[in-house]
Write a structure and sequence with these properties.
Oligomer: single chain
Strand content: under 5%
Helix content: over 70%
Number of helices: 5
Radius of gyration: 31 Å
Number of domains: 1
Structural class: mainly alpha
Distance between the termini: 62 Å
Number of strands: 0
Length: about 180
């Protein structure tokens, strides 16, 4: 083999090596960009879910507190032997809570959209539990009484709502802390 041919072959090997290295570098960079995009998407989805879950659970907690405060007010009215007019004054508080429950039902759409479906399925029982509590309180205000029967019904409904809310919160935590989003 003469020197010219050897130089050409050597140059070809060098070019092929350079091209191969370039192709491998391109593929590695492309893979890295794709992985970064996936990681960014997961972070964004997790952040959106966290905000949706946090807002919804916060409203659930505040509504639960306000339902309990109304219940304690009704207990006080019963113990004080309040007049029907005094009971009727609490109708405004009942209607405010009713409106907040309606708003919570609308807000639950954020949870359903944020997903996944398994969390959306836990929203309904939590809202129904609070709706049951509200129904008992509203009925008591309309009947001008809060006796042992209403108290027992309320406690039963309260327990069911608390379990539903706890299940929702626990599942939200698991989803947010999961690697798979």
């Amino acid at each position: 083999m003469d020197q010219g041919l050897a130089a050409v072959l050597g140059g070809c090997v060098g070019v092929a090596g350079t091209l191969g290295t370039g192709v491998l570098a391109y593929l590695a960079a492309r893979h890295q960009v794709r992985d970064q995009g996936k990681a960014e998407r997961k972070r964004l989805v997790r952040s959106e879910r966290r905000e949706a879950y946090r807002g919804f659970l916060k409203e659930l907690s505040e509504l639960t507190r306000d339902l309990d405060l109304l219940m304690l007010t009704l207990v006080g009215l019963q113990l004080d032997g309040a007049t029907p007019e005094q009971w009727f004054e609490k109708m405004g508080a009942c209607m405010t809570l009713s409106n907040r429950l309606k708003a919570l039902k609308i807000t639950s759409n954020d949870i359903m959209l944020a997903g996944p479906a398994e969390i959306a399925l836990l929203v309904g029982p939590a809202i129904r539990g609070l709706d049951g509590e509200w129904g008992i309180l509203h009925q008591a205000v309309c009947a001008f009484k809060w006796e042992r029967e209403e108290q027992d019904q309320y406690e039963s409904s309260r327990q069911a709502a608390a379990e539903s809310i706890s299940a929702l919160g626990a599942r939200a935590s698991i989803i947010l802390n999961s690697e798979d989003i």
